[in-house]
Design goal:
Mean pLDDT: 80
Low-confidence stretches: 24-51
InterPro entries: FMN-bd (IPR007329)
Number of domains: 1
Shape: elongated
Largest sheet: 4 strands, antiparallel
Helix content: 25-40%
Keywords: Signal
Pfam families: FMN_bind
CATH class: Alpha Beta
CATH architecture: Alpha-Beta Complex
Number of strands: 4
Protein name: FMN-binding protein
Distance between the termini: 58 Å
Radius of gyration: 19 Å
Organism: Streptomyces chattanoogensis
Structural class: alpha+beta
C-alpha cells in the first residue's frame, strides 16, 4: 500500500513539474515562410552582402494571419544589430483588439531590441498577437541575415 501511495505522489509531482516548464518554441520556419499559408512579403530595401555578415537596411517581415487579424513588422538593422522594429500591421478589428495591440506591441518591441532577436516571450493576454509578431520579426531577421 505504501509503495502505491509513494508511486502515485512521485508521478504526480513529476507531471506537475513537467507542466510548469516553459517550452522553447520556434518562432517559425527558418526560411521565413509563414505556416499560415501566407507568402512572405517582398524583399527588403537592404541588400544582403554575400559573405560579409548582416547588411544594414530595413527588412519587412512576412504578414502573419492570426485569429484576430494580421501582424506584420519591419526590422531596421545597423552594423549587424537590430536597432528598431516598426509595426506595419496589427489586429484592429475592434476596440478590444486595438487595446491589446497598444499594450502588447511596445512590450514585444522593447524585448526584441533588448535581446536582439525574435526569441522573446509572449505578452500575457495577447498570445495570438505575440505569436504573429514573433514570426513576422523572425522572417525579417532571416532576410537581414541577423
Amino acid at each position: 500500500m505504501r509503495r502505491a501511495v509513494l508511486t502515485t505522489v512521485s508521478t504526480s509531482t513529476l507531471i506537475l513539474l513537467l507542466l510548469t516548464l516553459k517550452p522553447h518554441h520556434s518562432a517559425g520556419p527558418a526560411d521565413g515562410t509563414a505556416r499560415s499559408g501566407v507568402a512572405p512579403a517582398a524583399t527588403s530595401a537592404g541588400t544582403p552582402r554575400r559573405g560579409s555578415g548582416p547588411a544594414n537596411g530595413t527588412y519587412t517581415g512576412a504578414p502573419i494571419d492570426t485569429r484576430y487579424g494580421t501582424v506584420q513588422v519591419e526590422a531596421i538593422v545597423r552594423a549587424g544589430r537590430l536597432t528598431a522594429v516598426k509595426v506595419l500591421r496589427s489586429p484592429s478589428e475592434n476596440g478590444h483588439d486595438r487595446e491589446i495591440a497598444s499594450y502588447a506591441l511596445p512590450r514585444l518591441t522593447q524585448e526584441a531590441l533588448n535581446v536582439q532577436s525574435a526569441h522573446i516571450d509572449a505578452v500575457s493576454g495577447a498570445s495570438y498577437t505575440s505569436a504573429g509578431y514573433v514570426r513576422s520579426l523572425q522572417s525579417a531577421l532571416d532576410r537581414a541575415g541577423v
